[in-house]
């Protein structure tokens, strides 16, 4: 006989962005929903996101903003729940927001506003949230699933895994979702940290250390991708949006090419400067275009000395080449400790792109960051959490 205290239509493991969105969606369909999380509080990554103001969507989000081994997988869910749909929800709750960069919407006051929207929606839909609950086992119960937790056994018809990725382990990130995927015969693609700062090897790290805090726009390239955004020098290496974005395309051993003066005709500029002011130096040119501290340090790093009149055409070509594609081989990344996302994860080839359910098990779902869909920086990752959460919530 069904026990109302422990039997649910839907159990969702993970009270993060995707899990809460899924819970409210399923709850509004009249399903009896329980969300479990081992953390003390729900949605902790939402609270820390966007520097505390949560970049909750990107109005220009398209499937091209996502990395996956199966790039078409995300299209259907993203099409059926769009940034405008989430914005409408935010508007209904009266949350004030601002567009900080084209398409990137942030809360005007606090990321807590977005978490409040989700918790209110869960409350209105009747979805229950149980925190400080650790799931120790999941078994098939024919029909449905038996869930063993530190607070006793539970049963459900549909099980949704929304446990996120491995980034920021101090926030409760675990590989539990991957274990469940393997238990049910799914492939888990190799994972690695994405949207993460680079560390630099010595002596470059030491040479750039005095520039810590300097930020300016560059174009970073790696493995056929490029991003034109600001780069920030830190005391450990290179960060800022340009570096975070390109880090998702970087593999250990790869070299980055960084155009320090994107949009500038460097070769023509330097040739013209040599003609007009033969006594000018490369440092003079750099000072006009780069933050002064960086210009000086970079010039010293390259050992460019003397007036331009002493430079042959081939010397100037070489200078331009370095400035257009400064080659940097990072020592590594800061890893999951500071990464915003985890690349890889549950292989989507075994999931339905319409429902997020396992192909031959329509009652178990994987949503959000646990699956092999990773967005660019700029609100795309939350948009995937909302869209995949709604896709599963509509059928779970
Ligand atoms: P999420 O990680 O949000 O939730 C997973 C939940 O599962 C957690 O509550 C966790 O406690 C729980 N859990 C894990 N293992 C469990 C277990 N074994 N048992 C029970 N519960 C378990 N994205 C964006 O679009 N805009 C932004 O501004 C930012 N900013 C940002 C800043 C920082 C510092 C980080 C780290 C990340 C971002 N992101 C972001 C990325 C974004 O936060 C991320 O993609 C989503 O939170 C993913 O949502 P999920 O619900 O999939 O996982």
From TrEMBL:
Coiled coil: none annotated. Its cofactor is FAD. Keywords: FAD, Flavoprotein. Residues 9-394 form the RsdA/BaiN/AoA(So)-like Rossmann fold-like domain. Gene3D superfamilies: FAD/NAD(P)-binding domain, HI0933 insert domain-like, Translation factors. Residues 192-341 form the RsdA/BaiN/AoA(So)-like insert domain. It comes from the Bacteria. NCBIfam families: aminoacetone oxidase family FAD-binding enzyme. This is Aminoacetone oxidase family FAD-binding enzyme.
């Amino acid at each position: 006989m069904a026990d109302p205290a422990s039997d649910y239509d839907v159990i969702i493991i993970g009270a993060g962005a995707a899990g809460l969105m899924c819970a409210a969606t399923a709850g509004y369909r009249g399903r009896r929903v329980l969300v479990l999380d081992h953390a003390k509080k729900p949605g902790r990554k939402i609270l820390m996101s966007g520097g505390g103001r949560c970049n909750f969507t990107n109005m220009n989000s398209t499937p091209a903003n996502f990395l996956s081994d199966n790039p078409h997988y995300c299209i259907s869910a993203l099409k059926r729940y769009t940034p405008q749909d989430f914005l409408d929800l935010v508007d209904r709750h009266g949350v004030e927001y601002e567009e900080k960069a084209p398409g990137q919407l942030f809360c005007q006051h606090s990321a807590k506003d977005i978490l409040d929207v989700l918790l209110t929606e869960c409350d209105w839909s009747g979805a229950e949230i149980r925190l400080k609950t650790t799931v120790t086992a999941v078994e098939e119960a024919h029909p449905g699933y038996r869930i063993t937790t530190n607070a006793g056994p539970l049963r459900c018809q549909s099980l949704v895994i929304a446990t996120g990725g491995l980034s920021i382990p101090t926030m409760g990130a675990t590989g539990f979702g991957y274990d469940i995927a393997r238990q049910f015969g799914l492939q888990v693609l190799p994972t690695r940290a994405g949207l993460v700062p680079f560390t630099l090897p010595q002596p470059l790290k030491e040479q750039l250390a005095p520039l810590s805090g300097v930020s300016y726009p560059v174009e970073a390239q790696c493995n056929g991708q490029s991003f034109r955004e600001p780069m920030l020098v830190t005391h450990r290496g290179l960060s800022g949006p340009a570096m975070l974005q390109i880090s998702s395309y970087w593999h250990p051993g790869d070299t980055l090419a960084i155009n320090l003066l994107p949009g500038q005709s460097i070769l023509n500029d330097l040739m013209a400067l040599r003609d007009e002011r033969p006594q000018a130096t490369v440092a003079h040119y750099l000072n006009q275009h780069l933050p002064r501290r960086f210009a000086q340090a970079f010039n010293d790093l390259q050992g460019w000395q003397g007036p331009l009149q002493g430079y042959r055409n081939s010397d100037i070509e070489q200078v331009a080449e370095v400035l257009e594609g400064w080659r940097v081989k990072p020592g590594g990344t800061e890893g999951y400790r500071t990464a915003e996302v985890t690349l890889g994860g549950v292989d989507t080839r075994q999931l339905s792109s319409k429902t997020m359910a396992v192909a031959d098990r329509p009652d178990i779902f994987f949503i959000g960051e646990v699956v092999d869909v990773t967005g660019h920086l700029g609100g795309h990752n939350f948009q995937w959490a909302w869209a995949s959460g709604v896709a599963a919530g509509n059928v779970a």
